[in-house]
Amino acid sequence: MLSFIDLAARPEFTVSEVDCRDDHRGWTTERPREDVRLVLVRSGGFRRRVRGVRTDLDRTVGYLGLPGEEEHFSHPAGGDVCTSISLRADLWRAMAGEAPRLAGSSLYVDSRLDLAHRRLLAAARDDGAEELVSLVAQAVQRVVTTPVPSGSGDEVLVARARAVIGDDHPAAAGLIPLAELLGVSPYRLSRAFTGALGVSLTRYRNGLRVSRALDRLEDGEPSLAVLAADLGFADQAHLCRTVREHLGHTPTALRRLLGAKRTTTPTKECAAASPTKAHQ
């Protein structure tokens, strides 16, 4: 029996938890799919057969599934839990090239890839695009043998990205739509941004949002829900987590620190929490 839980669903990608409770040594045939999939095992193991090649999969070996493949699966050791990442075709081409050739469909999951997988799972509830791009980029480096998209002029690219983010363009809401607007791969944009400024694009964008949140709190903004929606956060909880991560205080505590005046009593505040050390 298979169960699926979507951890993150975006137009460009979906991250799902797949729980399989099958226990059989025979092979089952799956209908060919149209997406590109990166599958990493979190617990247990199973077997996959494609074009006559059988691979034993567990936490140390994952696989890349391509459109149109006829896949066969076997679960001789019981169930397993996996992370399945489905990529839109144009996102895959932007990262792997227009016609990538692969060394194979399986890939070794070393410590770096394992950490990238865990970071994606931790970030999936908010956005996770930057963590996903980092994870897929590592997979591409392992299995794609043809040249991947690259370019020069990173300083100009970062300046353009900063201008778009500063103007609150709708594409600035995420790494992938911003990369599409600028005509580059998400991986190149993410790498260029970190190289130029020493922080990720996501942290830079959230830093601007936090600064704007401080302005609004100082001016007496009464509703955190309205503040979260206006500044592009997923919800009020996302606002509270981000503000606390950057500043070590909740928005509620910051109101008091700033001596802000409230015109009305908010209907809901962040959960009380002691200040934590802000990330550098």
Overview features:
single chain, 280 residues, alpha+beta, Jelly Rolls, six-stranded antiparallel β-sheet, four-stranded antiparallel β-sheet, 10 helices, 41% helix, 22% strand, globular, disordered C terminus
Quick summary:
Keywords: DNA-binding, Transcription, Transcription regulation. The protein has about 280 residues and is of the alpha+beta class.
Q: What's the overall average pLDDT, rounded? A: 87
Number of helices: 10
Distance between the termini: 45 Å
Strand count? 10
Strand count, sense and closure of the main sheet?
6 strands, antiparallel
Question: Order of strands across the widest beta sheet?
Answer: 1-2-9-4-7-10
User: CATH superfamily of the domain at 2-143, called what?
Assistant: Regulatory protein AraC
Instruction: Look up the CATH topology of the domain at 2-143.
Output: Jelly Rolls
Shape: globular
CATH architecture of the domain at 2-143: Sandwich
What is the C-alpha radius of gyration, as a whole number of Å?
A: 22 Å
Work out the helicity level: 40-55%
String of helices and strands? EEEEEEEEEHEHHHHHHHHH
> Which structural class should the secondary elements be placed in?
alpha+beta
Domain HTH araC/xylS-type: 159-257
Pfam family, one: HTH_18
Keywords: DNA-binding, Transcription, Transcription regulation
Protein name: AraC family transcriptional regulator
